[in-house]
Amino acid sequence: MLVKEFRICMPLTVEEYRIGQLYMISKHSHEQSDRGEGVEVVQNEPYEDPTHGKGQYTEKRVYLNSKLPSWARAVVPRIFYVTEKAWNYYPYTITEYTCSFLPKFFIHIETKYEDNNGSNDNIFDSEAKEIERDVCFIDIAYDEIPERYYKDSEDLRYFKSEKTHRGMLKEGWRENQKPIMCSYKLVTVKFEVWGLQTRVEQFVHKVIRDILMIGHRQAFAWVDEWYDMTMNEVREFERATQEATNKKIGIIPPAITISNIVMPSLTRSGPSSAPTTPLASEAPEFLAIPKDRPRKKSAPETLTLPDCREKCSTAMIPDIDASGEPSKPKHN
Predict the structure, then answer these.
(1) For the segment 290-299, what is each residue's pLDDT rounded down to a tens digit?
(2) Which of 168, 194, 208, 185 is nearest to 62 (CA)?
(3) pLDDT at residue 305 above 80?
(4) Are 69 and 87 spatial neighbours (Cβ–Cβ below 8 Å)?
(5) Sign of the C-alpha dihedral computed for residues 168, 170, 174 and 179 taken in this order
(6) 264 cis-preceded (ω within 30 degrees of 0)
(7) In the sheet where 134-138 sits, what is the strand order?
(8) Are strands 2-10 and 53-63 parallel, antiparallel or unpaired?
(9) What CA–CA distance (Å, rounded) separates 174 from 182?
(10) Are residues 185 and 5 in contact, defined by beta-carbon separation less than 8 angstroms?
């Protein structure tokens, strides 16, 4: 299990980002989706929790086979998706990612938003005070971004909002920017398969960091598109965009089913009031030791030897004496 705490600051307030977050997630999912790949929204409905109050529950399927590294594509089905379940009690959210094809794979993300520059070192004390973790700050303006995701219009060193007059972030902007908020994300990645655990957990954390970097950049770069929206308006935008995204992906028959086995108690999860994602207990077939090696189809089912009895000289076949032992060869 590998745990990291990410802190991502933005030149917004927590109240403003309530709208910006919903707008950014919907638009980003639509942009990243294509025929057969992307984010399919399965469920999106109000949800009430006895501890956290009213919120929104969403379930999505993230199809991403082509985005996997080559070593991972070699062992997963052609139609491969990750299930995302999220409980949004803004400014506190819980997100879980699982895949029944990889039953020992699990991602758990807890997020808290505060109006500060990432200075709260005790924000997760009630959830993970004793858990050892790295704290990683992400600078949405100056940290390196994968080249394939770079857009001039989203370069926050040069972008300035017309509606808020914020922007063109300078180095060190987090020290003196007003307003400023921080997304605190406690990310747990778990993949308990011997020989693959470290490699997979480190790779997944790298992917998550890139996604967080891109999403928060876009939230501010698109601020003029969502800044004047009301909650009802952004919910309608979310609904319309989700329908368009599902059509863009196309109808894909489910290739993976989710079992009814309850998640192991050692796995970190959300509050007991939040539903958990069931996992299977058996390792995927590709990680099991093969019992019988199948015969290659190119090999013949039987092997027929030529009959050489008529062609062989009788002198080459030893005589058997009365004792059952071969007799010694005769010399002329």
Answers:
(1) 444 444 444 4
(2) 208
(3) no
(4) no
(5) negative
(6) no
(7) 38-49, 53-63, 81-89, 92-98, 105-114, 181-191, 2-10, 134-138
(8) unpaired
(9) 10
(10) yes
